[in-house]
Protein backbone atom coordinates (compact mmCIF):
# COMPACT_ATOMS: atom_id res chain seq x y z
CA UNK A 1 0.00 0.00 0.00
CA UNK A 2 1.24 3.50 -0.93
CA UNK A 3 0.46 6.50 1.25
CA UNK A 4 1.42 10.10 2.05
CA UNK A 5 0.78 9.53 5.75
CA UNK A 6 4.36 9.62 7.10
CA UNK A 7 5.78 10.67 10.48
CA UNK A 8 9.56 10.73 11.07
CA UNK A 9 10.87 10.99 14.64
CA UNK A 10 14.25 12.02 16.00
CA UNK A 11 17.25 9.71 16.27
CA UNK A 12 17.78 8.14 19.63
CA UNK A 13 21.06 6.83 21.03
CA UNK A 14 20.77 3.42 22.68
CA UNK A 15 24.13 3.14 24.38
CA UNK A 16 25.63 -0.30 24.72
CA UNK A 17 24.05 -1.63 21.51
CA UNK A 18 26.14 -2.85 18.59
CA UNK A 19 24.32 -0.29 16.41
CA UNK A 20 23.34 2.42 18.89
CA UNK A 21 21.70 5.05 16.66
CA UNK A 22 18.06 4.21 15.95
CA UNK A 23 15.65 6.08 13.70
CA UNK A 24 11.93 5.47 14.07
CA UNK A 25 9.21 6.53 11.67
CA UNK A 26 5.65 5.55 10.78
CA UNK A 27 4.08 4.94 7.38
CA UNK A 28 0.30 4.88 7.71
CA UNK A 29 -0.33 2.68 10.74
CA UNK A 30 2.93 0.74 10.30
CA UNK A 31 5.75 1.65 12.75
CA UNK A 32 9.24 1.33 11.29
CA UNK A 33 12.73 1.50 12.76
CA UNK A 34 16.28 1.14 11.54
CA UNK A 35 19.49 1.10 13.59
CA UNK A 36 22.86 2.41 12.45
CA UNK A 37 26.49 2.03 13.41
CA UNK A 38 27.17 5.78 13.28
CA UNK A 39 25.08 8.91 13.87
CA UNK A 40 26.13 10.29 10.46
CA UNK A 41 24.50 7.32 8.71
CA UNK A 42 21.34 7.72 10.77
CA UNK A 43 21.23 11.46 10.03
CA UNK A 44 21.66 10.84 6.31
CA UNK A 45 18.86 8.28 6.17
CA UNK A 46 16.53 10.51 8.19
CA UNK A 47 17.27 13.46 5.88
CA UNK A 48 16.38 11.32 2.83
CA UNK A 49 13.04 10.32 4.36
CA UNK A 50 12.17 13.90 5.30
CA UNK A 51 13.10 15.19 1.85
CA UNK A 52 10.89 12.60 0.18
CA UNK A 53 7.97 13.34 2.50
CA UNK A 54 8.23 17.11 1.95
CA UNK A 55 8.32 16.68 -1.81
CA UNK A 56 5.06 14.73 -1.69
CA UNK A 57 6.37 11.30 -2.57
CA UNK A 58 4.31 8.24 -1.83
CA UNK A 59 5.71 5.82 0.77
CA UNK A 60 5.39 2.06 0.67
CA UNK A 61 3.84 0.85 3.94
CA UNK A 62 5.51 -2.56 3.68
CA UNK A 63 9.11 -1.42 3.39
CA UNK A 64 8.61 2.03 4.89
CA UNK A 65 10.55 3.61 2.01
CA UNK A 66 9.55 6.31 -0.49
CA UNK A 67 9.09 5.18 -4.07
CA UNK A 68 12.28 6.95 -5.22
CA UNK A 69 14.41 4.97 -2.74
CA UNK A 70 12.75 1.73 -3.76
CA UNK A 71 13.51 2.45 -7.40
CA UNK A 72 17.12 3.39 -6.65
CA UNK A 73 17.56 0.25 -4.60
CA UNK A 74 16.29 -1.87 -7.48
CA UNK A 75 18.56 -0.15 -10.05
CA UNK A 76 21.75 0.14 -7.98
CA UNK A 77 24.45 -2.34 -9.01
CA UNK A 78 25.58 -4.58 -6.18
CA UNK A 79 28.69 -3.46 -4.31
CA UNK A 80 31.64 -5.81 -4.69
CA UNK A 81 33.45 -7.17 -1.67
CA UNK A 82 36.56 -5.17 -2.59
CA UNK A 83 34.68 -1.87 -2.86
CA UNK A 84 32.84 -2.57 0.38
CA UNK A 85 36.03 -3.24 2.36
CA UNK A 86 37.63 -0.04 1.07
CA UNK A 87 34.53 2.00 1.98
CA UNK A 88 34.28 0.44 5.44
CA UNK A 89 37.91 1.00 6.43
CA UNK A 90 37.72 4.60 5.18
CA UNK A 91 34.70 5.15 7.46
CA UNK A 92 36.28 3.50 10.55
CA UNK A 93 39.85 4.79 10.14
CA UNK A 94 39.67 8.36 11.54
CA UNK A 95 38.39 7.40 15.00
CA UNK A 96 39.99 3.98 15.42
CA UNK A 97 43.09 3.23 17.50
CA UNK A 98 46.14 1.84 15.73
CA UNK A 99 45.59 -1.68 17.10
CA UNK A 100 41.94 -1.53 16.04
CA UNK A 101 42.93 -0.48 12.53
CA UNK A 102 45.34 -3.38 12.32
CA UNK A 103 42.61 -5.78 13.44
CA UNK A 104 40.08 -4.41 10.93
CA UNK A 105 42.46 -4.83 8.01
CA UNK A 106 43.46 -8.33 9.12
CA UNK A 107 39.82 -9.45 9.44
CA UNK A 108 38.82 -8.14 6.01
CA UNK A 109 41.99 -9.33 4.26
CA UNK A 110 41.52 -12.88 5.58
CA UNK A 111 37.80 -12.90 4.71
CA UNK A 112 38.77 -11.92 1.14
CA UNK A 113 40.17 -15.42 0.56
CA UNK A 114 36.56 -16.68 0.59
CA UNK A 115 35.18 -13.86 -1.59
CA UNK A 116 37.35 -14.35 -4.67
CA UNK A 117 35.70 -14.81 -8.06
CA UNK A 118 36.72 -15.29 -11.67
CA UNK A 119 40.42 -14.70 -12.35
CA UNK A 120 41.11 -13.73 -8.75
CA UNK A 121 40.55 -17.32 -7.56
CA UNK A 122 43.98 -18.35 -8.87
CA UNK A 123 45.87 -15.58 -7.06
CA UNK A 124 48.35 -16.79 -4.40
CA UNK A 125 47.08 -16.19 -0.88
CA UNK A 126 50.16 -14.21 0.14
CA UNK A 127 49.70 -11.85 -2.80
CA UNK A 128 46.01 -11.35 -1.98
CA UNK A 129 46.80 -10.57 1.64
CA UNK A 130 49.60 -8.13 0.79
CA UNK A 131 47.43 -6.36 -1.81
CA UNK A 132 44.46 -6.03 0.54
CA UNK A 133 46.62 -4.76 3.37
CA UNK A 134 47.92 -2.01 1.12
CA UNK A 135 44.58 -1.18 -0.50
CA UNK A 136 42.58 -0.94 2.72
CA UNK A 137 44.74 1.72 4.34
CA UNK A 138 43.30 5.14 3.34
CA UNK A 139 45.89 7.07 1.33
CA UNK A 140 46.34 10.27 -0.62
CA UNK A 141 44.79 10.01 -4.08
CA UNK A 142 48.10 10.57 -5.83
CA UNK A 143 49.98 7.83 -3.98
CA UNK A 144 51.07 5.24 -6.52
CA UNK A 145 50.35 1.56 -6.02
CA UNK A 146 53.58 -0.43 -5.53
CA UNK A 147 54.50 -2.11 -8.80
CA UNK A 148 54.58 -5.59 -7.26
CA UNK A 149 50.96 -5.19 -6.04
CA UNK A 150 49.44 -3.29 -8.96
CA UNK A 151 48.30 -6.30 -11.00
CA UNK A 152 46.83 -8.12 -8.00
CA UNK A 153 44.89 -5.03 -6.89
CA UNK A 154 43.48 -4.52 -10.39
CA UNK A 155 42.29 -8.14 -10.45
CA UNK A 156 40.72 -7.83 -7.02
CA UNK A 157 38.93 -4.64 -8.03
CA UNK A 158 37.12 -6.43 -10.82
CA UNK A 159 36.94 -10.02 -9.55
CA UNK A 160 35.57 -10.26 -6.02
CA UNK A 161 32.05 -11.46 -5.28
CA UNK A 162 29.27 -8.96 -4.55
CA UNK A 163 28.85 -8.34 -0.83
CA UNK A 164 25.22 -9.42 -1.22
CA UNK A 165 26.40 -12.95 -2.02
CA UNK A 166 27.12 -13.40 1.66
CA UNK A 167 23.38 -13.81 2.10
CA UNK A 168 23.99 -17.29 0.66
CA UNK A 169 24.63 -19.57 3.68
CA UNK A 170 27.30 -21.48 1.74
CA UNK A 171 29.29 -18.29 1.06
CA UNK A 172 28.81 -17.04 4.61
CA UNK A 173 30.04 -20.38 6.00
CA UNK A 174 33.07 -20.26 3.71
CA UNK A 175 33.94 -16.77 4.95
CA UNK A 176 33.46 -17.81 8.57
CA UNK A 177 35.78 -20.79 8.10
CA UNK A 178 38.45 -18.58 6.50
CA UNK A 179 38.69 -16.56 9.70
CA UNK A 180 39.90 -19.62 11.58
CA UNK A 181 42.86 -20.40 9.33
CA UNK A 182 46.39 -19.05 9.03
CA UNK A 183 47.94 -18.02 5.74
CA UNK A 184 49.30 -21.57 5.46
CA UNK A 185 45.81 -23.05 6.02
CA UNK A 186 46.61 -24.24 9.53
CA UNK A 187 44.19 -23.64 12.42
CA UNK A 188 44.61 -20.14 13.84
CA UNK A 189 44.73 -19.46 17.58
CA UNK A 190 41.34 -19.23 19.25
CA UNK A 191 41.95 -15.59 20.23
CA UNK A 192 42.87 -14.72 16.64
CA UNK A 193 39.74 -16.35 15.23
CA UNK A 194 37.53 -14.62 17.79
CA UNK A 195 39.12 -11.22 17.11
CA UNK A 196 38.68 -11.62 13.36
CA UNK A 197 35.06 -12.65 13.76
CA UNK A 198 34.34 -9.59 15.92
CA UNK A 199 35.97 -7.37 13.30
CA UNK A 200 34.06 -8.87 10.39
CA UNK A 201 30.79 -8.84 12.33
CA UNK A 202 31.01 -5.06 12.83
CA UNK A 203 31.91 -4.59 9.16
CA UNK A 204 28.87 -6.55 8.00
CA UNK A 205 26.61 -4.45 10.21
CA UNK A 206 27.83 -1.51 8.13
CA UNK A 207 26.86 -3.48 5.02
CA UNK A 208 23.33 -3.70 6.43
CA UNK A 209 23.37 0.06 7.04
CA UNK A 210 24.33 0.64 3.41
CA UNK A 211 21.42 -1.49 2.24
CA UNK A 212 23.67 -4.10 0.60
CA UNK A 213 22.55 -6.80 3.06
CA UNK A 214 19.14 -7.34 4.61
CA UNK A 215 20.71 -8.81 7.74
CA UNK A 216 24.12 -9.74 9.09
CA UNK A 217 24.78 -13.21 7.61
CA UNK A 218 27.50 -14.02 10.13
CA UNK A 219 24.91 -14.22 12.91
CA UNK A 220 23.30 -17.24 11.24
CA UNK A 221 26.53 -19.25 11.18
CA UNK A 222 26.70 -21.53 14.17
CA UNK A 223 30.21 -22.35 15.28
CA UNK A 224 31.48 -25.17 17.41
CA UNK A 225 32.18 -23.62 20.77
CA UNK A 226 35.76 -24.01 21.87
CA UNK A 227 36.53 -23.46 25.53
CA UNK A 228 38.92 -20.52 25.83
CA UNK A 229 41.15 -20.54 28.87
CA UNK A 230 41.74 -16.90 29.75
CA UNK A 231 43.18 -17.83 33.14
CA UNK A 232 46.72 -16.70 33.83
CA UNK A 233 49.19 -19.60 33.77
CA UNK A 234 50.31 -20.05 37.35
CA UNK A 235 53.67 -21.36 36.12
CA UNK A 236 54.44 -17.91 34.68
CA UNK A 237 53.95 -16.03 37.95
CA UNK A 238 57.13 -15.23 39.90
CA UNK A 239 57.22 -14.80 43.65
CA UNK A 240 58.56 -11.55 45.19
CA UNK A 241 62.09 -12.94 45.63
CA UNK A 242 62.27 -14.09 42.01
CA UNK A 243 60.87 -10.76 40.81
CA UNK A 244 63.57 -8.82 42.66
CA UNK A 245 66.29 -11.11 41.29
CA UNK A 246 65.04 -10.57 37.75
CA UNK A 247 64.84 -6.80 38.12
CA UNK A 248 68.36 -6.73 39.53
CA UNK A 249 69.59 -8.93 36.68
CA UNK A 250 68.35 -6.36 34.15
CA UNK A 251 71.12 -4.02 35.31
CA UNK A 252 73.73 -6.50 33.99
CA UNK A 253 72.34 -6.43 30.44
CA UNK A 254 74.68 -4.67 28.03
CA UNK A 255 77.80 -2.73 28.95
CA UNK A 256 77.87 -0.57 32.08
CA UNK A 257 79.09 2.37 30.02
CA UNK A 258 76.10 2.32 27.67
CA UNK A 259 73.71 1.61 30.56
CA UNK A 260 71.36 -0.30 28.26
CA UNK A 261 70.09 -2.50 31.06
CA UNK A 262 70.38 -0.03 33.93
CA UNK A 263 68.02 2.42 32.30
CA UNK A 264 65.39 -0.35 32.16
CA UNK A 265 65.55 -1.44 35.80
CA UNK A 266 62.96 1.13 36.90
CA UNK A 267 60.74 0.27 33.92
CA UNK A 268 60.47 -3.39 34.91
CA UNK A 269 60.17 -2.46 38.59
CA UNK A 270 57.15 -0.30 37.67
CA UNK A 271 55.49 -3.26 35.94
CA UNK A 272 55.93 -5.39 39.06
CA UNK A 273 55.42 -3.04 42.00
CA UNK A 274 52.65 -0.95 40.36
CA UNK A 275 51.07 -3.75 38.30
CA UNK A 276 50.75 -1.53 35.22
CA UNK A 277 50.67 -2.64 31.62
CA UNK A 278 53.89 -2.16 29.61
CA UNK A 279 52.22 0.39 27.30
CA UNK A 280 51.12 2.38 30.36
CA UNK A 281 54.65 2.39 31.77
CA UNK A 282 56.07 3.50 28.41
CA UNK A 283 53.76 6.55 28.49
CA UNK A 284 54.47 7.42 32.14
CA UNK A 285 55.65 11.03 32.68
CA UNK A 286 57.39 12.73 35.56
CA UNK A 287 54.28 14.83 36.19
CA UNK A 288 52.31 11.61 36.67
CA UNK A 289 54.48 10.59 39.63
CA UNK A 290 54.22 11.65 43.26
CA UNK A 291 57.47 10.34 44.79
CA UNK A 292 57.80 11.54 48.41
CA UNK A 293 61.00 11.25 50.42
CA UNK A 294 59.35 8.67 52.66
CA UNK A 295 56.38 6.33 52.47
CA UNK A 296 54.11 5.35 49.63
CA UNK A 297 53.96 7.24 46.36
CA UNK A 298 51.25 7.61 43.73
CA UNK A 299 51.18 7.14 39.96
CA UNK A 300 48.39 8.88 38.06
CA UNK A 301 48.10 7.10 34.74
CA UNK A 302 46.61 9.05 31.86
CA UNK A 303 48.26 7.93 28.59
CA UNK A 304 49.44 4.72 27.00
CA UNK A 305 51.92 4.19 24.18
CA UNK A 306 50.94 0.86 22.59
CA UNK A 307 53.29 -0.42 19.91
CA UNK A 308 51.90 -0.83 16.39
CA UNK A 309 53.23 -0.79 12.85
CA UNK A 310 53.93 2.62 11.35
CA UNK A 311 51.19 2.09 8.77
CA UNK A 312 48.52 2.00 11.48
CA UNK A 313 49.27 5.26 13.31
CA UNK A 314 48.39 8.81 12.25
CA UNK A 315 51.91 10.03 13.02
CA UNK A 316 53.75 7.40 10.98
CA UNK A 317 55.60 6.30 14.13
CA UNK A 318 55.66 2.86 15.70
CA UNK A 319 53.91 3.99 18.90
CA UNK A 320 50.35 5.19 19.08
CA UNK A 321 49.36 7.73 21.74
CA UNK A 322 46.09 6.77 23.40
CA UNK A 323 44.14 7.11 26.61
CA UNK A 324 43.82 4.26 29.08
CA UNK A 325 42.61 0.90 27.80
CA UNK A 326 38.81 0.70 27.48
CA UNK A 327 38.37 4.05 29.20
CA UNK A 328 37.24 7.52 28.16
CA UNK A 329 40.08 9.53 26.63
CA UNK A 330 40.08 11.91 29.61
CA UNK A 331 40.02 9.17 32.27
CA UNK A 332 42.92 8.66 34.69
CA UNK A 333 43.78 5.82 37.07
CA UNK A 334 45.55 6.31 40.39
CA UNK A 335 47.89 3.56 41.55
CA UNK A 336 49.52 3.77 45.00
CA UNK A 337 53.10 2.44 44.86
CA UNK A 338 55.21 1.06 47.72
CA UNK A 339 58.30 2.84 49.09
CA UNK A 340 60.57 0.32 47.32
CA UNK A 341 59.37 1.49 43.91
CA UNK A 342 59.45 5.15 45.01
CA UNK A 343 63.16 4.75 45.79
CA UNK A 344 63.88 3.01 42.48
CA UNK A 345 62.10 5.71 40.48
CA UNK A 346 63.86 8.52 42.33
CA UNK A 347 67.24 6.92 41.61
CA UNK A 348 66.27 6.47 37.96
CA UNK A 349 65.38 10.16 37.63
CA UNK A 350 68.64 11.21 39.29
CA UNK A 351 70.74 9.11 36.90
CA UNK A 352 68.83 9.33 33.63
CA UNK A 353 66.43 12.27 33.93
CA UNK A 354 63.47 12.35 31.53
CA UNK A 355 62.81 12.60 27.82
CA UNK A 356 62.10 16.12 26.45
CA UNK A 357 58.36 15.50 26.81
CA UNK A 358 58.74 14.34 30.42
CA UNK A 359 58.59 10.57 29.86
CA UNK A 360 60.46 8.53 32.46
CA UNK A 361 61.53 5.71 30.18
CA UNK A 362 63.22 6.02 26.79
CA UNK A 363 65.57 4.09 24.56
CA UNK A 364 69.29 4.72 24.24
CA UNK A 365 68.69 7.39 21.59
CA UNK A 366 66.07 9.17 23.71
CA UNK A 367 63.08 7.95 21.70
CA UNK A 368 59.96 6.10 22.84
CA UNK A 369 60.87 2.80 24.49
CA UNK A 370 60.00 0.06 22.03
CA UNK A 371 58.59 -3.37 22.86
CA UNK A 372 61.42 -5.10 21.00
CA UNK A 373 63.99 -3.16 23.06
CA UNK A 374 62.69 -4.13 26.48
CA UNK A 375 61.78 -7.66 25.33
CA UNK A 376 65.39 -8.33 24.30
CA UNK A 377 66.69 -7.02 27.62
CA UNK A 378 64.19 -9.16 29.51
CA UNK A 379 65.26 -12.27 27.62
CA UNK A 380 68.89 -11.65 28.60
CA UNK A 381 67.98 -10.91 32.22
CA UNK A 382 66.15 -14.23 32.56
CA UNK A 383 69.35 -16.04 31.58
CA UNK A 384 71.27 -14.13 34.27
CA UNK A 385 68.70 -14.70 37.03
CA UNK A 386 67.34 -18.18 36.33
CA UNK A 387 68.62 -21.72 36.12
CA UNK A 388 68.57 -23.36 32.65
CA UNK A 389 65.43 -25.27 33.68
CA UNK A 390 63.68 -22.05 34.70
CA UNK A 391 64.78 -20.30 31.51
CA UNK A 392 63.13 -23.07 29.49
CA UNK A 393 59.93 -22.84 31.57
CA UNK A 394 57.03 -20.35 31.26
CA UNK A 395 58.26 -18.56 34.41
CA UNK A 396 58.16 -14.79 33.70
CA UNK A 397 58.72 -15.49 30.03
CA UNK A 398 57.27 -12.11 29.04
CA UNK A 399 57.61 -8.71 30.69
CA UNK A 400 53.79 -8.68 30.96
CA UNK A 401 54.08 -11.57 33.41
CA UNK A 402 55.39 -9.06 35.99
CA UNK A 403 51.93 -7.45 35.97
CA UNK A 404 50.36 -10.88 36.51
CA UNK A 405 52.71 -11.46 39.42
CA UNK A 406 51.85 -8.08 40.96
CA UNK A 407 48.11 -8.63 40.86
CA UNK A 408 48.55 -12.15 42.25
CA UNK A 409 50.53 -10.76 45.20
CA UNK A 410 47.86 -8.16 45.92
CA UNK A 411 45.07 -10.75 45.87
CA UNK A 412 47.03 -13.20 48.01
CA UNK A 413 47.76 -10.40 50.48
CA UNK A 414 44.02 -10.14 51.07
CA UNK A 415 43.48 -6.83 49.31
CA UNK A 416 39.81 -6.48 48.39
CA UNK A 417 39.16 -7.51 44.79
CA UNK A 418 37.41 -4.21 44.00
CA UNK A 419 40.51 -2.29 45.10
CA UNK A 420 42.85 -4.56 43.10
CA UNK A 421 40.63 -4.16 40.05
CA UNK A 422 40.64 -0.37 40.41
CA UNK A 423 44.43 -0.24 40.65
CA UNK A 424 44.87 -2.67 37.76
CA UNK A 425 42.31 -1.07 35.44
CA UNK A 426 40.25 -4.27 35.17
CA UNK A 427 36.72 -5.22 36.08
CA UNK A 428 36.32 -7.38 39.19
CA UNK A 429 34.80 -10.13 37.03
CA UNK A 430 37.78 -10.25 34.66
CA UNK A 431 40.24 -10.00 37.55
CA UNK A 432 38.87 -12.97 39.48
CA UNK A 433 38.37 -15.05 36.35
CA UNK A 434 41.94 -14.55 35.13
CA UNK A 435 43.77 -14.91 38.44
CA UNK A 436 41.76 -17.66 40.12
CA UNK A 437 44.60 -20.19 39.73
CA UNK A 438 47.19 -17.79 41.14
CA UNK A 439 45.68 -17.51 44.61
CA UNK A 440 47.99 -19.55 46.84
CA UNK A 441 46.55 -21.38 49.80
CA UNK A 442 42.93 -21.31 48.65
CA UNK A 443 42.84 -25.07 47.99
CA UNK A 444 44.07 -25.89 51.50
CA UNK A 445 41.58 -23.46 53.02
CA UNK A 446 38.72 -24.98 51.06
CA UNK A 447 39.79 -28.52 51.97
CA UNK A 448 39.76 -27.64 55.68
CA UNK A 449 36.30 -26.13 55.36
CA UNK A 450 35.02 -29.30 53.69
CA UNK A 451 36.59 -31.47 56.41
CA UNK A 452 34.94 -29.34 59.09
CA UNK A 453 31.57 -29.71 57.42
CA UNK A 454 31.94 -33.49 56.99
CA UNK A 455 32.91 -33.88 60.65
CA UNK A 456 29.61 -32.45 61.85
UniProtKB/TrEMBL annotation:
<dbReference type="InterPro" id="IPR011010">
    <property type="entry name" value="DNA_brk_join_enz"/>
</dbReference>
<dbReference type="GO" id="GO:0015074">
    <property type="term" value="P:DNA integration"/>
</dbReference>
<dbReference type="InterPro" id="IPR050090">
    <property type="entry name" value="Tyrosine_recombinase_XerCD"/>
</dbReference>
<keyword id="KW-0233">DNA recombination</keyword>
<dbReference type="GO" id="GO:0006310">
    <property type="term" value="P:DNA recombination"/>
</dbReference>
<dbReference type="InterPro" id="IPR013762">
    <property type="entry name" value="Integrase-like_cat_sf"/>
</dbReference>
<feature type="domain" description="Tyr recombinase">
    <location>
        <begin position="233"/>
        <end position="449"/>
    </location>
</feature>
<protein>
    <submittedName>
        <fullName>Integrase</fullName>
    </submittedName>
</protein>
<dbReference type="InterPro" id="IPR002104">
    <property type="entry name" value="Integrase_catalytic"/>
</dbReference>
<dbReference type="GO" id="GO:0003677">
    <property type="term" value="F:DNA binding"/>
</dbReference>
Amino acid sequence: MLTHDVVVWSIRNRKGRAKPYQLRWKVGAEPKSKSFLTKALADGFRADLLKAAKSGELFDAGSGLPTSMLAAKAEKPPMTWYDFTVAYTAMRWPNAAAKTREGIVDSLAVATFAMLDGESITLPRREVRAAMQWALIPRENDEAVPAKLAMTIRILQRSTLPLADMADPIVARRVSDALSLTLDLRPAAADTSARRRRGLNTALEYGVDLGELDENPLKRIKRKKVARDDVVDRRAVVNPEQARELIAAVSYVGSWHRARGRRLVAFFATLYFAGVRPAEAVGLRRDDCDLPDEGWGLLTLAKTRPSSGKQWTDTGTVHDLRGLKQRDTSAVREVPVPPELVTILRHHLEEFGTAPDGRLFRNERGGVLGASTYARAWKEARRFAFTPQQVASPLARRPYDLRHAALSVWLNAGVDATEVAARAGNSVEVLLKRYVKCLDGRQDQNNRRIETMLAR
